User: Fold this.
Amino acid sequence: KALARRVSLGMARTGSVCSHFSGDIFLAFSTANEGSLSSDMPKEGGVEELETLQFVPWGCMDRFFEAAVQAAEEAIVNALLA
Assistant:
């Protein structure tokens, strides 16, 4: 969600301005930690298991935010020039 919000910054770097009625739509998909949070109930008489989740700490997200902006900018330039 936080990365998808940076797409509009990539658009701004190409000279575009987003307005209320501009019709810009951003879709974001994630495959991170696929299946890591299953909501299975413990079986009767079974032992409950703890699940783990790996994540990137917020303090290390700046590189990913910059990459999202650059990727959006590059996609727009490629669409215009290709």
In short: The chain has a mean pLDDT of 81. The two ends are 29 Å apart (CA to CA). Residues 17 and 23 are 11 Å apart (CA to CA).
